[in-house]
Structures are given as structure tokens and as C-alpha cells.
Amino acid sequence: MAGTRTQADEAREAVVEAALAALDLDAKARLLSGQDMWTLPALPEIGLRSLVMSDGPIGVRGVRWTADDPSVALPSPTALAATWDPGLARRAGVLLAQEARRKGVHVLLAPTVNLHRSPLGGRHFEAYSEDPYLTGTIGAGYVNGVQSGGVGTTVKHFVANDAETDRFTVNNTVSERALRELYLAPFEIIVENAHPWGIMTAYNTVNGTTMSEHHYLVNEVLRGEWGFDGYNVSDWLAARSTKGAIEGGLDVAMPGPRTVYGEPLAQAVRDGDVAEAKVDDAVRNVLRLAARVGILQGAEPVVTEHPEAVDGIALAREIARRSFVLVRNEGALPLRPNGTVALIGAAARDARVLGGGSATVFPARIVSPLDGLTAALPEGALTYAVGADPNTELAVADKGFELRAVCRDAEGNVIGTGSTPNGQIQWMGSDLPEGVTHDTLHTVELTGTFTPRESGPHTFGIKGVGAFKLTIDGTTYYDDFQRPERDDPFITFFGAPVSRAQPELTAGEPVEVSLTHVVEFPEDIPLKAVAFTLTHQEPRRDPDELIAEAVEAARNADTAVVVVATTERVESEGFDRKDLTLPGRQDDLIRAVAAANPNTVVIVNSGSPVELPWREDVAAVLLSWFPGQEGGAALADVLTGAHEPGGRLPTTWGSLTDAPVSQVVPSNGELPYREGVFIGYRAWEKEGRTPSYPFGHGLGYTDWTYESVKVEGAVEGITVTVRVRNSGERAGREVVQVYVAPTEPDTDRPARLLAGFAGVEAGPGETVEAVVELPRRAFETWDETTNSWTSVKGSYEIQAARSISDRRLAATINV
Ligand code: BGC
């Protein structure tokens, strides 16, 4: 299924076999175990260089996790899916491969193709959609793009890692039918259409077996049925048992140096617990990957000529504006030329351009909505007010700080220094300042000055675990041991900062700042890491005063543009959301501004759905997702009408109480997927509920008339041709969606499924055809009695639609 072998594949296989035969058991076992956070060991005896992996998915971080080493930051995966454009996803992939090559990375730990099962899923922003077909199609475009640049991908997290609560241990119980029709489907589509060189198995358990040991799903389904021939890497720290993992088809245990592979694996073979042939299978998969990316001597890489260079800044901006979903527009957009604009919202100035967790990268620059609109509008047309600040949490120490890191040994001698542009230290493995080793390092001091922008009580805090001493302007505010807030090995990276000092400071007057951390390298953590952050928050203003100020600004402008956002505490990794409300006073702010100015436009800067209780009271609502580093420039493009917003919802947006599936908290370690195949729009339709905005919905700046639909061919190859006319006044792009609906009511099947889509462009008055091929799967279900796909005979409506609930034309066929 995953494609036949070419001559070049055969030649690479021969090199792989020869290399494998030249390795002894210890070397083979060593190759399967990470040597540090991101790499595998080199094996010079066979001419193998060290393989480097890096997150993914919106940028390539590289092996150093620091603002010193910036990366292009694209819009969130939800945004990429909202473009409904696999070609654009492919171009994103080509750029990411270029970034990976620039940073010496061979394999990208992306894309994330888990599904939006519950809107509360913490990493929702990092996955594409609630629909497996849309997810698989966008994912395939992305993988094809990355790999066309000679860089591998690891499609993750295989499988059913759709929420974060107790992610290391939760047992998701999922019917075989739901697995096949929903959760496995995107992986299957990608294996078939993009031939990925890697897969990452998830932390969680599925039906009683942890995914890093899942013989059935990995060896039988993924490799056996689908023909996947890439490598399988564990999620970070997910591999727990030597025998279970190797027999369950896990090739690489990350991170190292201490894992269940390496020395314990060689020993297990010597003890007769594990067959050496299993080790050989895994080594073969890793060597094949190495050959493909060009780090195995004698093997020609898959890509010998790299694609043309991509302008990352331009592409980030293009994807952002193509992803913005205009869900409501009562004539407020595009903005009137020469009108005045009151821009409001903390995120309009300090934009939230990406989600938290392992997907975080450090862009070299960020264009906020304030920057973007200032550049686009005539002088004097724009005012700015904070309105409401949802960031109750302290942020990294970047604005006004000048800090460096001083490393000392146990006697207090300085042994090295490092830079830290934002008060954040994340030194993993051997990534230490020059002259510093884990054996000699005792303390790291962040030291330097802070010059306040405003007078008043400034809050300073610490993110991290262990002993800390915080001194500001000569006063020591904290000298104690900070404990983790919950049990997750990545808590030092993704946990919340704790406030530890609140001195009164004066604007413009610098003070000395020092935060010292006593480093520790606990035995039970396989990787030596130094990770902590100095955090800070400006003096807080009275929330009512901020709203009043914004209302005043709105009253004096032709249009009020309010940017509302979630925070890092709402959308990140390692935890799920508790509700879908906008944090802080943002809902109050919108209501107050809308009451003062009927021309209020709301920009929702969140990676995943939030509730919009005021949506009928405002003139326009635009969802901007996490728009990446160029988000503000793209926003100006769309608000001014230089470009139309191109996005369509990849996921249903509705309130939490109405959401048919929301459970993310396991009980007694188990999370039953009781809803079976009914998630997302499948569930909303089954329950007969109306969401705020349906799947597939999104407005542009022109109108479309659906003129005709023609269906040709039999179930093996059905082609749907939809003629649409641009009946508006400007050029535009339409996403023509095709849904397949069984005409006989059947409560066991979704009322309709997305079976295909195509983007078309046309000038005013022009007619164009969208041609969509329907996959066979649209007419099949997984039969649990025969354990196979069966086509369901009968009559179907083929519906051409603007969204799942705005269906314009239909034709009936019998299969
Ligand atoms: C995440 C993965 C990521 C890995 C390495 C894990 O915690 O679940 O998505 O690739 O860390 O950063």
C-alpha cells in the first residue's frame, strides 16, 4: 500500500543490509537508544553519522532550545488545516525542510495528526481537525513537502493521544471501528499518500497496551496492513520495558542516554529474553532512515537536489491570511478606506503567535496586530488601548532585562558564562556554555539589570524545580526549594511560574537582578538538563479603568478592532483545558466596546475553540488562530481588504455545554471513547444540536453561486464536478466541499461525511469547476465481525456545500 520500491530504494536497501551485517550486538543495541535529548549515536565503523531529530510542527527548533537560535514560526496546525489547502501545507513542509537543513536536523518530529475529539484537549492547537479525511490530506501535503527537501518526518502521536490528562498512563478504550474510521485514518492516509519515513508512538495506552509496545497496531496494522517501512520512535520517555518495546515494534527509545535500549537490550538478547532478529529489524529501520536522509556512507539520499529556496517570512504571512476564518461579517470588513480604527486588547500589542509546550520555537521577530496595522494604515488613523489583560501569569524576562548566565563550581569559582536573551535556561544534555561540564557545574546565576517601563509594583517569579535564590536591588525575596506542581517529567518546561517578589520600582531606573539555581541531576531522569526561567509581570492596572479607557477609544473611532486571546496557561502541553471561556475580563470588554461602537470587529487569537457569547452583538468576528510570527502583517492584509481571509473551520466551534463529546479526564486510569464514531460534526448532527459555527464555515469578501453538480464513475473512482460562479464584486477563492450522505436513515452511521474538497479561484462574474475525486472509504465502514472494511450498498446523496450546514446542490447515486 505504501508504494513499490524503486531501483534507488533497492540500492539503499543493499547498503543498509551490508551496514547491518557489519555491526555487533552492542553497537546495534546502542544505535536504538538516544545518546542525548535529540540525537542517536554515530557509528563510524559503518560510516554512519549521528542522526538529529527536532520538534516540529510549526517551526524547527534545532537541538538548542533558546532564543539565541531563532526559527521561522508558522501559524498553528489548526490554522494550516483551516486553509483546506494541501498544496499550501506542502509548501510549509518545503520551508521546514530548509529550516531543518540550516540547523543540521535530519528528522522533524511532526506532524501531529491526532484528532479534535474534545474541544478541551490541551494540544488541540497542535493537531489539524476533528475530521480524519481533512487531517490526513493536510498531513500528507505537509509530509510530502518536508520529505521533498530531504528531511524525514515522524507522524505523531500514534495513536489516540487526543487529550493530555495523565498522558503517560491513561488507557483509552476505543472500539476497533472508531480506531479504523477515525483515529487511525489520518495515519493511514498519510502512509498511503506521502510515505513518511517515521512515526512516533504515543505515551498513552490503547485498549490495555501502551503504545510503545503495541504489537497489534504497530506491527500488524501499520507495518503489516499498510506497508509502513519507516522508523518508529517513542514519545519522549515513553519507552518503559526492553522486551515489551522491542517486541511491540519500537525501533528507537528517546531521549537518552539512559533508556530501555542500549546496554539493557544487548543484555536481554544475551539472556535469551529477546531474539536478536527483533533488534536487527529495528536497526534496519533506523539505517534505512539514515540512508534516506543521507547520513549513511555509500547510500544515496532520497533527495539529491534541494527545492528552490523559500522566503519564510513571506510564506508565514501568506499561510496566516489564508487561514483566518471570517465567521461573521455584517458589512464591517474590509475596513472603510480612510476610516479611523481603535485597536484594543493586550494581545494586539503582545501577540500570542504560537501555542505552548514542545511545539514552541523562538522566532527572530514577531509582527503584532499593532505593528501590522500601524504599518498599513495612514498616520493618525490608529489608536491603541489595552482594554483587558488576560495574562495573569508571569512572562519570560525579556522586556527591559539585560541578563547573562554565570556558571560556578561547588567552591564558587566561575567556570563559564552563557547568554540568555529572555531569562530562560534550557540546557539539555551536552548543550552547556563553553568550559562547563555536568560534573563541575554546581550553580547557575542569572544576573544583570532590569529597567522598568512603568512605575509601580513589579512581580518577579521563578519557573522550575529545585533550590533558588532571588535577589532584586539588594533585597533577597526568596531562598528556598521550589517543588513541582504536578507529576510530569517535563514540568520544568511546561509548568506554571510562581510569584516570589513584588518590589516597587520606578520607570527608567535600572535595578540589579539575580536568580541563582543550584543544579541537580536526579538519577531517575535519563537526561541531564538545566532548566529554569526568571519571569516577570508589569504593574497591574485596575480592570474597570482599562475597560473604560477602551470604550472611550472605541467611541471616538469609525471601527473598533478588539483582539482577544487565550494564554499559555490555557493552551499548552501536559494538561487539558477546563472550560472554553476567554480568560480574564475579555468577554466584558467586548460587550462594553460593542455597546459603544456598532462597528466592532473581534479578532479571536486562539489555537482552538473558545466560546463567543457576544457574537451576535458585534459586526464581525475573525478567527486568527495562533497566526505565527507574521500574524500582525497578515491581519492588516485582511482587515484592509488587500487580501480576503481564506480560512474555513476545520473543527466545529460551539459552547462546552452543547459539545457532544468533551470528556478528557480518565476515571480509574481509563478514558472510554464511548461515543464510538461520533465525534465533531458527526456528533453534533447526531444529537441534532446547532453549534455557534459549523464545520467548513468561513466567509470571504465575495459571493459564490453553486450552479451544477455532476457525478461520474463507480465506487472505485467517483469524480464530482461542481460548477461555481463568483457572483460578487471582487476576485476570490472558494473551498468547494463534498459530503457523502446515505439516503436511508441509519443511526449507526454519521448522517454525512466529508469525502473531498477543492479550492478554486475566480474573478467577479467568472465560472469555474471544482473537480473532486471521492475515496472508496466514503462508502465503507469497518465491520467488527469480519474485521475488515465493507462497502455499504445503497443510495447516497453527493452534496456540494460551503460548509456542512450550508449545502447548495446534491446528486443521488447508487453504489
Ligand atoms: C511530546 C512530543 C515531542 C517530544 C519531544 C513530548 O513531550 O509529546 O510531541 O515531540 O516531547 O519534544
TrEMBL record:
The keyword Hydrolase applies. GO terms for biological process: carbohydrate metabolic process. One of its GO terms (molecular function) is hydrolase activity, hydrolyzing O-glycosyl compounds. Residues 377-551 form the PA14 domain. PROSITE patterns: PA14. Keywords: Hydrolase. InterPro entries: Cellulose_deg_GH3 (IPR050288), Fn3-like (IPR026891), GH (IPR017853), Glyco_hydro_3_C (IPR002772), Glyco_hydro_3_C_sf (IPR036881), Glyco_hydro_3_N (IPR001764), Glyco_hydro_3_N_sf (IPR036962), Ig-like_fold (IPR013783). SUPFAM superfamilies: (Trans)glycosidases, Anthrax protective antigen, Beta-D-glucan exohydrolase, C-terminal domain. Belongs to the glycosyl hydrolase 3 family. This is Glycoside hydrolase family 3 protein. It comes from Streptomyces sp. R28. The lineage of its organism: Bacteria, Bacillati, Actinomycetota, Actinomycetes, Kitasatosporales.
